[in-house]
Amino acid sequence: AQSVAQPEDQVNVAEGNPLTVKCTYSVSGNPYLFWYVQYPNRGLQFLLKYITGDNLVKGSYGFEAEFNKSQTSFHLKKPSALVSDSALYFCAVSRHAGNNRKLIWGLGTSLAVNP
Amino acid sequence: ETGVTQTPRHLVMGMTNKKSLKCEQHLGHNAMYWYKQSAKKPLELMFVYNFKEQTENNSVPSRFSPECPNSSHLFLHLHTLQPEDSALYLCASSQVSIAGGLAYEQYFGPGTRLTVT
């Protein structure tokens, strides 16, 4: 079955420390992988994506993610967390379905950055 | 206005009411989407419009009726809803190629918080 897993409901990190939000996927074929962030009372905002090429992808607000094909993972990282990074983070993978690609979404991980 | 806008931001309606949600995108995209976001559940794709044509209807009950008059506007007409339909309804847009494919990221509006009483 095609799926995306975000194994942690919540991640807590101190401001200034590195953060990692985990994502693993199970999809046939070559996946397209995305990270989105949702701040309270807001829609989702695109952070970054992996389509092909370099496994390390850099995105908005200093975030980056590493595609690991052997581990089928696409973990989101940031070297130094800010309190303003506190939000809900969603991983999504796109799989080919006929003439279209469908996004499969994770359940989200709530990130809390403590001052 | 920039990006994707949605109105109203909040809506409370009775089970016998009829209301509509509106979405407008100012990004020049050719695909638009309706999603339902409920707590502790994955984001649920409801409808997809590519080039104004509906290409996806994920077994959504008929009490939800989408309308896409042009590539910039998307509506979700609601009637005789149930309390379990209470959720955040998100609109999104993206660019898609004529050959199909969703390698392009989606841009979301702020959502409409719907409460059905």
SSE order and pairing:
The complex is a heterodimer of chains A (115) and B (117).
Chain A: E1 3-5, E2 10-14, E3 19-21, E4 24-26, E5 32-38, E6 44-50, E7 56-58, E8 64-68, E9 73-78, E10 87-97, E11 100-105, E12 109-114
Parallel strand pairs in A: 2-12
Antiparallel strand pairs in A: 1-4, 3-9, 5-6, 5-10, 7-8, 8-9, 10-11, 10-12
Chain B: E1 4-7, E2 10-13, E3 18-25, E4 31-37, E5 44-50, E6 53-57, E7 64-70, E8 73-79, E9 87-94, E10 107-108, E11 112-116
Parallel strand pairs in B: 2-11
Antiparallel strand pairs in B: 1-3, 3-8, 4-5, 4-9, 5-6, 7-8, 9-10, 9-11
Helix content of chain A: under 10%
Taking the sheet with the most strands of chain A, its summary is:
6 strands, mixed
Query: What is the helix fraction of residues of chain B, given as a range?
Result: under 10%
- Number of DSSP strand runs of chain B: 11
Fraction in beta strands of chain B = over 45%
Taken from the alpha-carbon principal axes, the silhouette of chain B is globular
Largest sheet of chain B: 7 strands, mixed
Q: Which series of helices and strands of chain B comes N to C?
A: EEEEEEEEEEE
Order of helices and strands of chain A: EEEEEEEEEEEE
- Could you report the average pLDDT of chain A, rounded to the nearest whole number? 91
Low confidence ranges of chain A: none
The poorly predicted ranges of chain B are none
Distance between the termini of chain A: 40 Å
